[in-house]
Amino acid sequence: MQAPAELLGRITRSEVGGVMLFRPNIVEPAQVAELVRDLRSASPAGFPLAVSVDQEGGLVQRLRQPLTVWPDMLSVAAAGDPVRTEAVGRGLGDELAALGIGWNFAPVLDVHTNPANPVIGNRAFGVTPVAVETHALAFWRGLRAAGVLGCGKHFPGHGDTQTDSHLDLPMVVHGQARLRAVELAPFAAAVAAGLSAIMTAHVLYPAWDALLPATLSPRIARDILRGDLGFAGLLVSDDLGMRAVADRWPIEELVVQSLLAGVDHFLVREPRERQEAAFAALVRAAETRPEVRARVHESAARTARFKALLSPRMPAERAELQARLGTPENRALAASFPRVDATAATNSPVADS
User: 244 Cβ partners below 8 Å, 6+ apart?
Assistant: First the structure.
């Protein structure tokens, strides 16, 4: 799998500022390293390309053998040792860094409180806010020590839903007191710790906004995250092709409304025509609407600050990869965690109000 020439051209023209790798892009480590090298080399001088991946561990890890296959994070955190959790983040991050991948869409900051949740479950670090804060931030520190940036998700909390936002629009019906005590608490801790990127949830929270999911809601993305929590970093949309939002709003409306709500960086999967429509919609809106233009400048500045944090290291050469991927130490660490049953682990840490 090589980078398409048209994508390299769009990167060179600064029409694409970040690339996310998925399973179809991955054949074997040397191919991934060469792909990343080509993508990053296409970026104009002074405008580094953000190359990212979903590598949480457990079910969600795009890169598998011969890399280390990591257990789910609920099992990692259940061991009760933040030092070992941080070592998992470091080991996972070291292997991403060897491939030139500088941004990981992890850790999950959702609190696993609903056994019927079809999409979070054992992706979460715990069933209480304290467990999630402790272990998700330990994992993030490990990533950071490896030179990889993290991204906390899914703001303001996807842990107590019964619907998968890939398929439909979920809802969290708790009152504001419960939302702040449980769902919001790990994000508040992550902001205080200095996490530089957070991803939105395509989830409806009627206690805060009865009409718009978090990705499109100024009340949630701007007033609560920026205002109440003081987050100054990069706000990333979850994939705008997910049916929770894509079935309800055209892509042109999604990107402009999300931008005005406070989102800085948009994830738009193929087809290419949809990506180009999103880009064109932002350009048109910025040319004709002063408030959109002001937000574009604000988000561009945040994106530039974030990209300045990216490691400048290119992927390791082919001869080095075997020694840096799937190391005996990482494999032994990954094998040391007993697995936890996610459906049996949930409880109700705080009563609703």
Answer: 165, 166, 167, 168, 169, 170, 202, 203, 213
d(CA 27, CA 142): 26
pLDDT of residue 78: 97
- Name the packing angle between helices 272-288 and 290-307 (round to 10°): 120
Give the ranges where the chain is alpha helix by DSSP (H): 5-12, 29-41, 73-78, 82-98, 129-145, 176-178, 185-193, 218, 243-246, 251-261, 272-288, 290-307, 318-324, 328-335, 342-345
Which tokens hold the place of 312? 């400048």
Report the catalytic residues.
166, 238
pLDDT the model gives residue 347: 54
Summarised one tens digit per residue, pLDDT across range 47-86 is 899 999 999 999 999 999 999 999 999 999 999 999 999 9
Rounded CA-CA distance 136/142 in Å is 10
- How many angstroms separate the Cα of 286 from the Cα of each of 87, 89, 90, 274, 293? 44, 39, 41, 18, 4
- Does 194 score more than 50 pLDDT? yes
pLDDT computed for residue 350 by the predictor: 41
- Taking the domains of the chain in order of start, what are their residue ranges? 17-335
pLDDT tens digits along 233-273: 999 999 999 999 999 999 999 999 999 999 999 999 988 99
Q: Which residues pair with 149 in a beta bridge?
A: 103
Domain 17-335 sits in CATH at 3.20.20.300
Distance of alpha carbon 130 from alpha carbon 127, whole angstroms: 9
Q: Which residue has 């061991």 as its token pair? A: 79
- Mean of all residue pLDDT scores within the chain: 95
